[in-house]
């Protein structure tokens, strides 16, 4: 079981030896690879949805195991919108999914911009992660 220590000031601290990045690397390794960019047809959307669901199942287990309740709630608030969007896109017969699949030409045009933005955000997050210490504090 993962250890959690209460810090002065109300924060909760998890040391890397208890919940390390190796756990998250396992999650990443389980995610099926999908084409880069926005999905342009039903087959690609289904592949992206499968990858998303696989990754989030693993991440949710890590979140539950490694974060204190307040950290779990904060993280869920931050990613709740993305979860809702993916739920609508990945559930057959939702209006949003039908509309998304009606516009493959549009998605194909904006896909390179989307990919570029995603890569910049990912790169920024990796840089931020590398600069953080091995001990994470939730406040």
Give an overview of the whole structure:
- It is built from five helices and three strands, in the order E-E-H-H-H-H-H-E.
- The protein has helices at about 20-30, 40-65, 70-90, 95-100, 105-130, and strands at about 5, 10-15, 135-139.
- It has a three-stranded antiparallel sheet with strand order 1-2-3, with no helix packed on it.
- Strand 1 (about 5) and strand 2 (about 10-15) form a beta hairpin.
- The two termini are about 20 Å apart.
- Mean pLDDT is about 80; it is low at about 1-15.
Concise synopsis of the structure shown:
The chain has 5 helices and 3 strands; from the N terminus they run E-E-H-H-H-H-H-E. The chain is mainly alpha-helical. The chain has a 3-stranded antiparallel sheet with strand order 1-2-3, with no helix packed on it.
Structural classification: mainly alpha
Give the strand order of the largest sheet, numbering strands 1, 2, ... along the chain. Answer: 1-2-3
Q: Provide a count of the helices.
A: 5
Mean pLDDT: 78
Query: For the CA atoms, what is the radius of gyration?
Result: 18 Å
Question: The biggest beta sheet, please?
Answer: 3 strands, antiparallel
**Termini separation (Å)?**
22 Å
As a percent range, the share of strand residues is 5-15%
Strand count:
3
Poorly predicted runs: 1-17
Question: Keywords, please?
Answer:
139 residues, three-stranded antiparallel sheet, 3 strands, single chain, mainly alpha, globular, 66% helix
Q: What's the layout of helices and strands?
A:
Layout: E1 5-6, E2 12-15, H1 21-30, H2 42-66, H3 69-90, H4 95-101, H5 104-131, E3 135-138
Antiparallel strand pairs: 1-2, 2-3
Helix pairs in contact: 1-2, 2-3
């Amino acid at each position: 079981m993962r250890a959690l220590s209460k810090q002065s000031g109300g924060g909760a601290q998890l040391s890397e030896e208890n919940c390390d990045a190796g756990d998250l690397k396992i999650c990443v390794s389980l995610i099926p690879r999908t084409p880069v960019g926005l999905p342009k047809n039903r087959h690609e959307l289904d592949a992206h949805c499968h990858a998303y669901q696989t990754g989030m199942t693993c991440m949710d287990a890590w979140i539950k195991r490694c974060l204190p309740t307040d950290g779990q709630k904060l993280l869920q608030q931050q990613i709740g919108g993305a979860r809702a969007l993916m739920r609508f896109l990945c559930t057959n017969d939702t209006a949003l999914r039908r509309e998304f699949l009606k516009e493959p030409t549009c998605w194909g045009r904006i896909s390179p911009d989307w990919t570029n933005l995603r890569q910049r955000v990912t790169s920024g997050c990796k840089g931020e992660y590398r600069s953080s210490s091995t001990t994470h504090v939730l406040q």
